[in-house]
Design goal:
This protein is α/β, with parallel strands linked by helices. Helices cover 53% and strands 10% of the residues. The chain has helices at residues 2-22, 25-29, 39-42, 52-63, 80-94, 105-109, 114-130, 148-165, 196-210, and strands at residues 32-37, 69-72, 98-102, 134-138, 169-170.
Length: 211
């Protein structure tokens, strides 16, 4: 009788594990993704349907049709201070599983103190964690003419936050785009349509890793 009971328990566990393994990938990975960024994610100067955020939705739909929802709450010109003020409502409204945090560039270009930028990023990360959302942090860089001390402190903000909260960090979101004039709009600040697939490829492994 004891052997029979053990066999039934083992069979039950095996059957359960088989059920889990056989679940369709799209059911296991279904997620709501909130993008909180600036003009790089808002699609400034280009057709928004050709921006990297829209391409992300298309890529996820190809693998898991209609299971992942990408919500773009990015605003051109956004700063970490502005996004921090908006974030509580966004988290409450959308209840995301993953937050993509692509901010800080405008703060840096305006010469905001790195400590202020770091404090705002940290508060947003904390708010996301409290809501049950994972965060993927997008690393940014600024031109060297701001001085080595400032640019170093600015860039270190992302590493510090990533290490402190154990977050996936894209080292430099504009890798392969910045400095390539053919991939930039006439202002040489904002990426053009040709650059959007590169931006998607920079972000995609980290996004999928968070799902």
């Amino acid at each position: 009788m004891l052997k029979a009971t053990r066999y039934i328990k083992q069979l039950s566990v095996t059957s359960f594990m088989s059920f889990v393994v056989l679940l369709p990938l799209q059911q296991v990975m279904a997620a709501k993704i909130l993008v909180v960024g600036d003009s790089l994610s808002a699609g400034y100067g280009i057709d928004v349907n050709k921006g990297w955020v829209h391409l992300l939705q298309q890529n996820l739909d190809q693998q898991a049709p209609k299971k992942h929802q990408v919500i773009n709450a990015s605003v051109s010109g956004e700063t970490t201070t502005g996004a921090l003020a908006r974030l509580p409502k966004l988290l409450q409204q959308y209840k995301p599983d993953v937050m993509l945090l692509e901010l800080g560039g405008n703060d840096g270009l305006r010469g905001q103190p790195p400590q202020t930028i770091q404090r705002n990023l940290e508060k947003m990360i904390q708010l996301a964690q409290q809501s049950g959302s994972k965060t993927v942090l997008f690393g940014m860089k600024i031109p060297p003419n701001y001085g080595s001390a400032y640019t170093r402190a600015f860039e270190q903000n992302y590493t510090i936050m990533s290490q402190k909260y154990k977050l996936p960090l894209i080292p430099f979101f504009l890798e392969g785009v910045a400095g390539h004039n053919q991939l930039m709009q006439s202002d040489l600040i904002h990426p053009n349509e040709k650059a959007q697939k590169i931006l998607l490829n920079n972000a995609l492994p980290y996004v999928k890793g968070a799902l």
